[in-house]
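Z., the sequence and structure:
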Amino acid sequence: MIIRKSWSLSWVVGAVLVAASLFISVNFLLYYFASHISSFASSPITFPAMSPSQCDLYSCFNRTKCNINYDNSDLKLGIAVPKVSSSISKEYSRMLSVMSGLSGAHRHGTEACLAVPAIDTLDANRVDHGRLKDLNLTGNDIVFNLIPSPSGTPDLPVGGAMVASTAHLTYTIRTRFDISIPFVTSKRTVASSGARKFLATITATNEKPAVAHKWRYQSLEMCSSERTNHITHRCTHHNREISLVEAMTNSEFCVLPTNSWYSQSDLAASLASGCIPVLLTDTYVLPFEEVIDWKEAAVLLLGRSVEQSLGILNGISEQRRSLLRSKGRDIHEKYFSDLESVVETVVQIIVARLSPVHDFHPMSSHSLISGAMRNLHLYRGQVRASEKFTAVILTHDRVDNVFSMIKTLMEVPELDKVIVVWNNEVKKSPPEAAWPAVDKPLKIIHTWANRLTNRFLPFSDIATDAVLSLDDDITHLSPNQISAAFRVWQENPASLTGFISLQCHYEDSSLTMISLGAAFYHKYWADRFLHHMPESVMAFIEENKACEDVAFNLFVCNLTSTSSIFMHGPESESALKLRSTENDEKLPMCLESLVSLYGCVDVTSLRNPLSASIK
């Protein structure tokens, strides 16, 4: 059939006008790009606008400036260190000298991975806020602060800069961005000789234990004299000034101040004097929490009164006291005794934070998560696959199942360590002698509350990139099946790889997710999920069991845009189908609620799952 076209005058005129308009537009664009192409080529990579209070290593920090070769342990961060001037303190001058001596450090260059400001910020009370603000510090700048402002916080106009301070509060520190550092003491550790005079020294508290006469203790207060240096000295109830280290040397335990920055300086003094620190509050972030396990050197009695604490401390055995004191002595000598150790540890922590994922590229705009998750500013890239994995078993009280799983895991050659998260604050875990004999490391972590997200807690104890997450009702996996799944994960380290698929319908399509009851994932995803999810999401997960699987799947697929991998085979399917389907009925509710809380998610990759066979 032939369609005849009618060429009217109006149509011709219209065509001419359109052509003329296109000609002008094209020439304008050519002119614009010709005049601006040089500036585009030289423009630096920019990061999303971000409130300084929300900064982390994936928003304010420009990772492209950092060149770290992890395989060869080559820490060429590139550190810009200013020249030493007479306007800075001797301590700050020493810190700059240490930074200059580190591998990769140089004195000039705006493209350094880390940069130290020329303004001395160690004492917040002596900093010129105007000068500091004029520096327009970015996330690649790092500010060191030892003495806080009168408010007990750094309180400095640092913008988006990273802050290494002794005065970080638990509710204001920017997680895995800022760093809590120790208050450096010049005194060496005091060796204990014989029994100590007091059970405890209580520093700077208004609480007077009603039954404290049961135990020998001494209570110190802030001196009334304005000339007293309360960092190093306190007063007895008779207002007699006494050296803090001298007083602490006579005590087994030192109960640190609550809601006061002096808890940080007193922590350093207690370690220096061989007095076991006791913390009743977590207002301030403990120094170097990422590298120091404080449970091995201090007694954490959060929320307890002084009176309750004295009774608990009196019941601690001499053997336990000796272990705590020995570990405290090691920590003081390694991290608290000089500024050089502080600077070197800060740099090591930053390197470790940068290590899980490298070669990052910004996510394309269409796949960015909006709504509540937008503040994450996630980036995806090529992740590294480790040669071994760590098994994390979440259990409440299925002891026999856990023992059976441990025995199976010990037969897997790729296993590095087993971590059992004892998720029961009421029932104690079995004694050490009752656990199976193992030839690989086994660690039991006791949680304070039965929370579904506790499976993600032991991040600092995991030395491998790969994590095998297991629930305590998974008892039918064989060593060969686990090894096969691990090999599949090694080829796809950005994906969730598991044995249990979760099916759910959403917007007229079928979605496939992986249950965390038996799945491999990169440890980096767990860390980001635990520390950067909105509080509304975490609260919803705790109120609705089984929703943590959905939340984690949504999180990872939006972070990586990769499909999950389901391991299937006759033996695994028949065994794992024995699990209750009760949780499956909750999946639609979980999905709809979480999508609403997130604001918007991309479920494309969940519509196209991958599968691998177990032979």
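The CA atoms of residues 24 and 30 lie 10 Å apart. The first strand starts at residue 79 and ends at 80.

Let me know what you think.
H.
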